[in-house]
């Protein structure tokens, strides 16, 4: 059998997809939250490389199994993880891992959280109750996290103190607002996590 040989030049990786520059430190961060809160959107908006997503169309097989109150119109779901990367500066690069939101995929968290330095919990104030179990799991795993309230246009706005009480959060845990569609807003949420981690590290050193 004859095989045609293409004259087209070989295509290598894009410049934006290269690995860590020399001397930079890579840190693993997890984006977590309930179904439909904007995790995939956030990773895609902030990533400086083409994000890896594992979104699949939801089918009738999930009827009666998945409970997605308030997000019934969403017809796709992350079935494994999302992945992206953002350079904070020349010395620090964050590798972002978005978790699946549906509870039947939470068994994947064990691998996703391995080696993670911290997490961002995305919250939709229209369905704040979906974050209760997620925050409990993070606390049980002793994973430091910040809460980022995703600014959906029709979502109610609550004072930080009210949100802290509703989520039963320690006073030290930062709560920030975030538009998961906006790169700079997502970057600010990640910087809040980095600042919080630095505060925790300093407290441990002085203890």
From TrEMBL:
Key word GTP-binding present: yes
Protein name: ATP/GTP-binding protein
Taxonomic superkingdom: Bacteria
UniProt record similarity statement: Belongs to the GPN-loop GTPase family.
Keyword terms: GTP-binding, Hydrolase, Nucleotide-binding
């Amino acid at each position: 059998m004859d095989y045609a040989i293409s004259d087209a030049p070989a295509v290598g990786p894009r410049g934006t997809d290269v690995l860590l520059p020399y001397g930079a430190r890579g840190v693993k961060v997890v984006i977590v939250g309930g179904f439909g809160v904007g995790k995939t959107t956030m990773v895609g908006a902030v990533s400086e490389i083409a994000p890896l997503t594992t979104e699949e169309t939801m089918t009738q097989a999930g009827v009666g199994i998945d409970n997605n109150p308030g997000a019934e119109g969403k017809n796709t779901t992350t079935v494994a993880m999302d992945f992206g990367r953002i350079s904070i500066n020349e010395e620090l690069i964050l590798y972002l891992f978005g978790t699946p939101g549906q509870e039947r995929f939470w068994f994947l968290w064990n691998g996703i959280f391995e080696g993670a330095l911290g997490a961002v919990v995305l919250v939709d104030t229209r369905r704040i109750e979906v974050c209760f179990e997620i925050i409990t799991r993070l606390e049980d795993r002793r994973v430091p996290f910040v809460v980022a309230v995703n600014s959906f246009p029709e979502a109610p706005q609550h004072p930080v103190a009210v949100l802290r009480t509703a989520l039963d959060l320690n006073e030290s845990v930062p709560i920030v607002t975030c538009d998961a569609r906006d790169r700079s807003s997502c970057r600010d949420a990640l910087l809040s996590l980095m600042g919080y981690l630095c505060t925790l590290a300093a407290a441990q050193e002085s203890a």
